[in-house]
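Sat 14:20. Reprocessing the chain from the morning session after the first attempt stalled halfway. Input below, unchanged.
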Amino acid sequence: MTLLERIEKKQQDIQKRKTIIIKQEKKIESTTDEYDLRWAKDDLKGSQSKLKDLEIQLENLFKQQEKEQKKNEVERIPVIEEFLEQWKVKAIEWFNLDYHKLVEYQKESKEKYKLLKQWQEESKIYHYGKEYKEKEKELGIDNETRSNKLRLFHPLTTKLYQLYRNNWESELEKEIEKDKNDKRQLLIIRVKKITGKILDASFLHIGLNGEINGYIIGELGKAKVETISAGGYNIQCWHFRVLVKEIKK
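Finished this time. Tokens:
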């Protein structure tokens, strides 16, 4: 659920709660029995407390939305956008590969569980003792082997598989885009701590290896930008660390 959808849902919950409160207030006005009146007032008090909590939650969501909007308000420097977009493409490609490997591994495990069940029925072993555990280990589906194997997959890959199997591609796109926006904000903030307002970023360039290097000129000075990258292979997604240093006069 996106942030906007959460805000809309919270607004709907608040409206529903307000409707309930109106009904409870009318009930109190029409109730004459002292016992029923006491319960009706308690119900109203509970609803008012829930409404207050919902309004606080909505306020926090609006603050989060404002924060997200500010993230997207940082300068969009073409060469940095190109660099980040290249990273995004590589990241999505890598996670696609990692995800399909996980799917294949889970399919293989499922088939091995079928073999285990078949062996169990043929051997007439209906308890989970030593023989059963040995067969599990032989097939590579014992807890220790599976845990070690699953650790090889990226946590995001595992999350997509567990929670978003039906629309994992769109969820992956959201996750990587969010990470891209975070990286942009972090990079621009670090540069502006040195340069102040950015005046000229034309001296930045992207090398053949996809790394961004060069320098940026600002109102307060110059900042050297240097990338250290690693990965890009089957076992590790391409990632980078951008160093930003002041160029002293």
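The chain has seven helices and five strands.
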